[in-house]
Queue: 2 jobs
Job 1
Amino acid sequence: MAPSDFANANIDEIVENLTTDEAILLTAGVGFWHTHKVERLGVPAIKVSDGPNGVRGNHFFMGTPAKCLPSSTALGATWDTKLIEEVGLKLLAPEAKLRAASVILAPTCNIQRNPLGGRSFESFAEDPYLSGMLAAAYVNGVQKGGIGTTIKHFVGNDKENDRQGYDSIMSDRALREIYLMPFMLAHKYAAPWSIMTAYNRVNGIHVSEDHFLLTKVLRDEWNYKGLVMSDWFGIYSIDTSIKAGLDLEMPGTNKWRTLDLMNRTIQARKLTVRDIKARARTVLDLVQKCAKGAPEILDGDGEERTVESDEDKALMRRVAAESIVLLRNEGGVLPLNPQGMKRIAIVGGNAKATVLSGGGSAALKASYYISPYDGIVNALSEHKDVEVTYSEGARAYMTMPSLDYELFTETGERGWVGSWHTHLDDDSMTPVEEPIETRVVDETRIFISTSTPKGITRKWSFRLRGQLKPRPYDVDFEFGLTTAGRAKLYVDGKLIIDNWTRQRRGDSFFGVGSVEERGVVSLKANQKHNIFVEYCNVRGPADGDEDEAVMDSNPGVRLGGAEVINPDDEMARAVQLAKEADAVIAIVGLNADWETEGYDRTTLALPGRTDELIAKVAAANPRTIVVTQSGSAITLPWVDSVAGLVHSWYLGNATGDAIADVVFGKHNPSGKLSLTFPKALEDVPAHGHFHSENGKVRYAEDLFVGYKHYQHRKIEPLFPFGFGLSYTKFELADLELTEPTVANGDFSLTVSLSATNTGSVTGSEIVQLYVSLPTTSDLTHPPLQLKAFAKVYDLQPGKSQRVELTLDKYAVSYWDARFATWTVEKGQYIIQVGTSSDKLPLKSTFVLSKGFEWRGI
């Protein structure tokens, strides 16, 4: 029987025929990415794959080249549900099929509570309504393509430090109105096939063990019928998680739900077979959905493939451009017209760097990448008289830059040669000299995870040999070596870095790696220099932690490096190039070291001397345009001194082309900020109560998250939520409201208005509608809440378009914790409509003469 035949299986019969052991096996994964198969009953395994901005496939190490989409905050900045659904259907679902994956572990729709959160870039927005509607569009697109989604991380996973232990302490109203709301909307409008639980606690209980959240809310109130899986290594019990409603433990490596432990739990009467079969049934339901959605995956060969088409590349480029937000455009400096220019200077630490996405689960091996520098140079190719000059200006990296394009094998292939060595036995630290496998490795950040060759011992070694690309000059070169395990770097046979004998614990490699250790080598002109890294998957002793643990889940090693420069000289060179240029394009920002799964940021400032560079370059040339790259908010103390400012987020494969399209006017920007940019860290709503203190994170800002805080406290942000400029201008007018209708426990009202392009070029605009609840309420409510939005596409100069926005019960409801119900009060409601949360020129009211309550979705 073909695996896809399971699409027609009778699940009731299979559940009845499952042995206890088979049911147990179904409730936990196999390896890192698969569910368990039951061949006796024709139940196939399904494969899942990360992630939020692309589909990586099985391997972090030497993975299958894949499409890297813009980060979720970038997708959020499009405010375009049609586009997000198209991305899901035309890009993500086909990518999953190419990776032989039936389910993708995305989207993430946690709230942007604080921009310091390490995974902020993975979530759409700071607003629950925008987050939920975009998540629903993402889910609908992917699942229309026959691929399952796993919406995550349910719920309150809004930071990284101490993420498996901290307790998100929040009010009932904040839980319902802010943090659960995106999941609720996504379920209402898209019904994701699966949901992933968060690592953390909420109000004292780990979510993976929380019967209230997983059963009472999710299944009983919302009538959710899909599967609930854990985050990887995100359960902490056996019977508690089963009884709470967690169907599937992932991964199958180092799992709790083993046959031995589960059977012992049954014998102790902590669980019944019925409990386990209830969980197994939901797993079978998911497998059947996958068999119906994309049967070719289950019947296929399981191989991962890469396919790129011109159509896909065009869509990637369009999505990236649509997400870019124009923040400042003094004197109409943008779009930049190169006509008549002699020289354009490009400066900044991100101009030539490979900045695809944030780090962690979002990381993948890109099938191609266009840097900002290359994108700009390509766009200027038709302007032959324009000279492009370049200076890094100020370095911005946390760890030494990748050497992916700096190392070559003896035969001239890009990369280095890695050889795997078993040890004398599982507990020995002595490697066998004869390798069991040798291969070319074209990566210098090597996160091996579980991608080890067959036959490897529990303790093993990996040796990497290559040659550094020769320089035409003598230069000092600084290397950086990071490891989850232990490692040494030799250059031309000389030990340069010892990250083996004694180590310093760090946050790398999902929190189990070392601090980067550095060493400097003097390189001779035109000479090849031999590079050798010796790695072992057993970490070395460290002060305060003598434990030499085996890295059986997250082994890895990273070698980076760069020429040693005089930072003052490099800064001066950038300023001089700025003085000599007709215009300056500065590309600066963060990268996957600064924003990543595993740890949180400590500052909103740009790294190193970046702010100093921009200030000096802007002073040297008034025609300075800054392009910032980050997945969340950053502070910009020099903002008033630059003519143009473009925020580009992380844009994936098409980064450089999309930036160039906006800078030179091929694309008129329409992106809007999906989160507030504060003037200072101290202005952030969660400031002072963001960190885990003795395992507690107090959500003291309560309902006043994001723009709601800034409006409530009358704090002026640097750039408000929903803000974004265009190369044209729009005017909204003629606001009309229908009479509100209340019937059958629901509410409806239609708002209409006209949008007119009053500028000189075709453009698109986001119409945003905010609601204020009655001031007669006994409770405090945020002053404004986003409750509807719509995109006006490609409106020509002088043309108008009528826009309709529909409100339902969600627009007028709040959670009443006394009665555990959603409540709509009688009274006067205010509607304000505009193009940014701080620019709402249209205003009207409506009155409800009678309120009502409702439950469910």
Job 2
Amino acid sequence: MSENQHSHGEQGRHEVVVGVGPVSIQDIVDVARHDAPVRISDDALEAIAESSARIRELAGFERPVYGVSTGFGALATRHIPQNMRRQLQRSLIRSHAAGSGPEVEREVIRALMLLRLSTLATGRTGVRPEVAQAYAGMLSAGITPVVHEYGSLGCSGDLAPLAHCALAVIGEGPVRTRDGELTTSAEALSEAGLEPVELAEKEGLALINGTDGMLGQLVLAISDLDRLMRLADLAAAMSVEGQLGTDRVFRADLQALRPHPGQAASAANMAAILADSGIVFSHKGDDCTYVQDAYSLRCSPQVAGAARDTIEHARMVAGRELASAVDNPVVTLDGRVESNGNFHGAPVAYVLDFLAIAVADAASISERRTDRFLDAARNRGLPPFLADDAGVDSGHMIAQYTQAAVVSELKRLANPASVDSIPSSAMQEDHVSMGWSAARKLRKAIDGLTRVLAIEILTAARGIDLREPEASPATARVIAAIRASGVQGPGTDRFLAPEIESVVQLVSSGALLDVVESVTGRLQ
């Protein structure tokens, strides 16, 4: 990835260097979630300066150049005189910063800003170096513009979200400091020793014409799902163990008969987690009357594997998008300034929707496994609802209701946003991607999957505790970590919501994954 390597800042903080080549998924996570400071490489600054000089040259031409000497969108036929072109860029940012609704999460905004900076660093947008440096400076200072939930149609770029960020760069609009304090951009920039930027020709347009909002959320989702799919394998393995299922179906030679890579990885993970399980071993003899496990147990690798392969497809698309210079018009390598349609969000929108489908199905099969634990007719000898005194106690009955409510919501969120299009800009922009909307619902879906898996793991831990033989070393360590977090073992009914939330935190933080991998080694 060219010069986009990791180094360390003066204060020992991890630093991300943005060069001419693409930033990596890890770069984005480091900046968005861990406040890594940002620096622009020398070769990127040189490339930026070269394309900026070309735009300054074209600004003096009599022939109209879109975004340099014309209006925007349906107003592109309006020629703008030289003395009004800086006002044109300011007006563009102010008018397009038209978002509404709740504030967008800080990590999303930081990812969006880093991705816009990455495109500026390619030298294909025509902005001056000081504009790119302004983005790096704000990211390093922890200054986050206020961006709102609604405003992007995912075409011509994530216009409103990007415009709110550009507004802060020119010293206008509200921002939040590193500590979360709401203040004005002018005050925050001043306190950080940064100067507002006065935009020149094309620069306002270059700051808002990109898929950075939806792409940033896609990258964060991929990072989350890489962790959650391994935890889905843990949850499934614990359910197989607690419900006296067999691990024979997860053998590598059986998976090789249907060579989907995600399926093989999931099955291998489950086999590793179940290794040396006294519970599984206890019913392997000829006296076992169980012939086959239910689909939700036996087919876990097939479902989780399909979700994994979907994530890999999304990663491929994200990689291509990260290597892109998305702007309109764009400065080509030979110095031309050309209009194009690369800002259309369809490629990103499709995979965001595809991931929401995979998330919904992974949660759906998890809920089915949980439900089997609670049904005395199907749980192979466990008490109804895993209750201490069924009838007096309800056990985990309502935990499954909570799962079912989340799964129902996830099925609604799996309805694709990208099949919709509402024309805008007086029909100039007559087909849009709705990629931002796809990204927003995927973030909600990932939160839902986290909660569904946490409830399955919580329930499986209780079910395994009710079995007499010893659990596998991996699941025993997981159960110990759950108990150490304050969640009690089987017993009379108690306030269940805090226990669910405790396991949600163990799942979302990655702590539970660390625990299981301390026994199995890194899962696939």
